[in-house]
């Protein structure tokens, strides 16, 4: 088992990143819509501290993420990079792990000889300043934009099937929009769930997360033997807010695993407190 390290140095890095962050009424609204969500500052501080007790440092940790292509998804990713260094990108549209088994295997080969990896994955959703879920303000753009656009397009595609109105087509998959085609296929099992939801846009990221969690579990089980030491698997929903506000993350999984695919410890409580 990896030895715990002094967390003062590495946690100090996180505190420096978020030194000028303060909560607002907007932030309280986010946690009301997505109970259990943590600000990026809280999440990263708690994750870094918990992993330091497993021997993770800024020198021996490789960060890997499977988050959406959207530039808003880079906020959390970039802040983790400031702590751990380089990031290996496993994700594509909506956050699905399109790099697959080949990408995970390549990532595993890049882990330091005495190190381990932290994998962060999940879909994202926007919340505008007026509380509308599925919309978000973007810097330099007057239009309050959809977020996640890929997820919402897939949801509308599914709605056309379940409620009628979907157009008949002979095109099943197109390489030029392959990823979106996959997202639409993978959301199909959630048709009734989304149709019955009180707020479809709130339920949508939970549904997408379940599909992504299954895929990531399969990828990790297939490729874990290539990892030199251990794997920390952090899954959840990324919540994007206005440019001047803090982003949030709703953690739904935080597993500490060995390179045989065994969960050594469920550390979700260590970062959420419940």
Short description:
The protein has 274 residues and is of the alpha/beta class. It contains ten helices and ten strands. The relative contact order is 0.17.
The percent range for strand residues is 15-25%
Mean pLDDT, all residues: 91
Shape: globular
Distance between the termini: 25 Å
**Spans of 5+ residues with little confidence (pLDDT < 50)?**
none
What is the string of helix and strand elements?
HHEHEHEHEEEEHHHHEEEH
Helix content: 40-55%
Structural class: alpha/beta
Sheet with most strands: 8 strands, mixed
Number of helices: 10
> Rg from C-alpha positions?
19 Å
* Number of DSSP-assigned strands: 10
Polypeptide structure, described:
There is one protein chain. The protein has 274 residues and is an alpha/beta fold. It is 41% helix and 20% strand. It has helices at 7-17, 25-33, 40-52, 74-84, 100-109, 149-162, 178-186, 191-196, 200-223, 268-272, and strands spanning 38-39, 61-66, 87-89, 116-121, 124-126, 135-138, 141-146, 231-240, 248-257, 263-266. Strands 1, 2, 3, 4, 5, 8, 9 and 10 form an eight-stranded mixed beta sheet that branches. It has a two-stranded antiparallel ribbon with strand order 6-7. Helix 1 (7-17) packs antiparallel against helix 3 and helix 6 packs across helix 7 (178-186). It is globular and about 60 Å long. The protein starts with 6 loop residues before the first helix and ends with a helix.
Task: Draw up the topology in text.
Blueprint: H1 7-17, H2 25-33, E1 38-39, H3 40-52, E2 61-66, H4 74-84, E3 87-89, H5 100-109, E4 116-121, E5 124-126, E6 135-138, E7 141-146, H6 149-162, H7 178-186, H8 191-196, H9 200-223, E8 231-240, E9 248-257, E10 263-266, H10 268-272
Parallel strand pairs: 2-3, 2-4, 4-8, 5-8
Antiparallel strand pairs: 1-9, 6-7, 8-9, 9-10
